Amino acid sequence: MSTNLEIIDVNAAFESAVARQRATLLDRPLFDEFPPRPETPNLEATIRASVARAVDTRQTDALEPGRHDIVMSDGGFETRYWRLSHSPVIEGGEVTCVLQLVEDVTAEVTRQLLLDARERTAEEGAALAFWDLNLVTGKLVRSGGVDSMHGFAPGEVGEDIEPFIERVHPEDRDRVRMEVFSAAEQGPGPTNLEHRLLLPDGTIRWISARGEILPGPVNGEPHLVGMVVDITEFRQNEERLKTALANQKILLDEVNHRVKNSLQMVASLLSLESGRASPETRERLMSASIRVNAIATIHASLYLDGDVTSVAVDQQLRDLCDHVAASSGCDVRGITIDLDLAPIRLCPNQAISLSIIVNELITNALKHAFPGRAEGKVQVRLTRDGSADELVLTVTDDGTGPSEAAGEQAGRSSGLGQRLIHMSARQIGGRIEQSRSPEGWRTTLRFPVPG
C-alpha cells in the first residue's frame, strides 16, 4: 500500500478476508474499495495517522482493534472488526510504501462485546456487580458496579479492599472483615455474606455477596470470586411486609376480640331473658346462650399462635371442652371429659365448624346421657386415618343411650342441635354416623384431610 493509501498488492489471505479478487483491488484507493458504512465509525483518519507515524518513525505502528464493515457482493454490509499494523518499506534510504498487516478479529471482539453486554445488563438491570479478591494481598479486581454500590466515582479508589471495608456499616464492619479474611481458612467452596453499607451522604444500603473460594494463578493464593447484588429494595419491602402483617395481626385480634365480646353480650342477654320466661322457653333460651358462649370461646382462641391461615384445632377443642365442662358443672356432677386429640391444623372455617359439632355433641351428652347418675365419662377423639386420607372425630359417652320411646330419629340432640351438627358437617365435606349400644352413645364424623 502506498503512503497515500492506494493498494499496490495483496496476498491470498487478504483476498479471502475481504471477499475480493486481487485484480479488482490493484491500484484502487483503499477507502474507495472499502467505503465506511453509514452511521458507523470511520477508520480512515485513524489509518492515515498510523501510516504517517510509521513513515516518520520508520517503525511498525500497531492499532487497537476497530470496526470497519465490508460491502458484500449483494450490496449489503457485513460487520467486521480488524487489528491493523503498518510497517514502512524502506528502499535506498527512503520509505517507498507501507506494508499493512490485517487480522480479522471479529469473533474475538464480538465475544468480548457479548460478555461486556452481559455484565452491563447485570449491573444496570439487576444491580449486580462482579469482583475478584486476593485474600492474601487484599487486592480487589472488580467491575464498575462494585464502586458505584459503595458510593465511589469511577477511578476514585485503587485496588485495595480497605476503602470498601470502610464503607461497611460500623455495626457490621468487624464481622465482615473477619468473615472475608477468614474465608481462606475454609478452603475451596462457596461463601455468602449480607451486610449494610453506610454511604457518605448517610444513605444505608443492603448488599448480598455470593462467591466461591478458588486457588489463584500465583502460588495458589486463595481468591474470593463472585458477585454482589444490591438487595436494599428487597430488605425495605421485607420490612414493609412485616409491618403490614403486624398491623393485620393487630386488626385481626381486635376483630376477634370484638366478636367474642359481642357474642358474650348476646349470651348474657339470652340468659337474663330466660329468667323471666316460661319453663319451656327458659330451656330454649339457655340452650341458645350456651351455644353462643361456645362460639365466643372459639373466637377467643383463634390465631393465638400468630398463624392467620390455620388454627391448632387440638388446642382449640381443649379450650372449648374446658369451657363446656366448667359451665355445665361437670366437677360437681362427677362427669369427666377425656380428650385424645392429634396435633392437627385446620383453616379457621373448618376449625369453627368442627368446634360447633363438638360443642353440640358434648352438651347433648351432658344434658341427656346421665339422668340420675352420680358420675359419667365423655370421650372426644380426633385422629388422622391415613389409609382413607381423612380426619376422624369420635365423641362417645358411657351414658344410658336414647330410650326406645324417644326413638332413634335424633339421637339425644334436639332438632336444632341435630341440624347444627349436620349443617356444620356438610360445610367441611364430612359425613355423620351415630349409633347406640349398651355402653352408651357414639357419634363419628369423617371429613377430608385439608390440602
From TrEMBL:
Q: Where is the PAC domain?
A: 191-243
- Which reaction is the catalytic activity of this chain? ATP + protein L-histidine = ADP + protein N-phospho-L-histidine
Which InterPro entries does the record match to this protein?
HATPase_C_sf (IPR036890), HATPase_dom (IPR003594), His_kinase_dom (IPR005467), PAC (IPR001610), PAS (IPR000014), PAS-assoc_C (IPR000700), PAS-like_dom_sf (IPR035965), PAS_4 (IPR013656)
Record's superkingdom? Bacteria
Residue segments, region Disordered: 397-416
Query: What is the enzyme's main class?
Result: transferase
Q: Which UniProt keywords apply?
A: ATP-binding, Kinase, Nucleotide-binding, Phosphoprotein, Transferase, Virulence
Q: Which Pfam families match?
A: HATPase_c (PF02518), HisKA_2 (PF07568), PAS_3 (PF08447), PAS_4 (PF08448)
Keyword Cell membrane, does the record have it? no
List the EC numbers from the record. Answer: 2.7.13.3
Q: Which SMART domains match?
A: HATPase_c, PAC
Note whether Phosphoprotein occurs among the keywords: yes
Taking every annotated instance into account, which residue ranges of this chain make up the domain Histidine kinase?
254-451
Q: PANTHER family, alphabetically?
A: ETHYLENE RESPONSE SENSOR PROTEIN, TWO-COMPONENT SYSTEM SENSOR PROTEIN
- Entry protein name: histidine kinase
